Fold:
Amino acid sequence: MIPSRQIVLEAGNRVAPFVHRTPVLSSRLLNELSGAEVFFKCENLQKMGAFKMRGAINAIQQLSEAQKKAGVVTHSSGNFGQALALAAKNLGVKAYIVMPSSAPSVKIEAVKAYGGVVTISEPTLEAREKSAATIVEEKGAVFLHPSNDLNVILGQGTAALELLKDQPDLEFIMTPVGGGGLIAGTALAAHYFGTNCAVVGGEPMEVDDAYRALKSGKIKYNISSDTIADGLKTNLGDKNFPIIIALVSDIIRVEEKEIIDAMKLIWERMKLVIEPSSAVPFAALLKEKEKFRNKKIGIILSGGNVELSNLPF
Structure:
């Protein structure tokens, strides 16, 4: 079931008062390098440093008063945990965040600073889900999935909604693909508010489940999670996958070196702090230059929460 144009628009109106209207920047040099006209939507400059603030705000606002009183819970390696903690704080709701022991310490500390109650679990999806389920049972909190919840997906799509208001004649919008919430929300925005605007995902070769899922028509899983793009290790879900199948035109896979090179270019040339996951769609553009030559392209720079003591360059 694809949400209607009106529902997508309502999410935009709901989210707008609580988030930054992030800038859209371009670089003459990066245009020359890619052979395209590229507009970067800077969600690395969003509150808490990532687009995920949008989905968290939208999802909490859709809860009943009784649910808000009980609080919200999620499991996250970082960005959605931070987003939910800050969104909950801004809306006067308690947030419980289950984080794997492998999560970057900078992200764990950020969640605590935003008022989130952190539970550390073993770094497996099974352990994270079990800890979250325990909190739901004990506290009565509402579980919000980082990427496979329709209200989260609609919230994430508001970045593309803003981008299309600023650049209405984009021919492509490119996003990274992890759990699928951002690309599904972006595809909805492009479908209703773009003009023949195709949505293309970028995905690390090491965790290419979405690429395989789009080809096969079935949700796939990863055996490896060995990628520098730590935000893209999760897989698609049953809420976002139907939207992706219907509305996403392609997913391009990139190697680890290509991600690092693209990240370095954006740091050096645009003076923007982005995390590795954010560099993946630009890496995909550089990899498939011919496909995008002389096109107008929007790229969502998904986040800037990077561990400065552990840069790849």
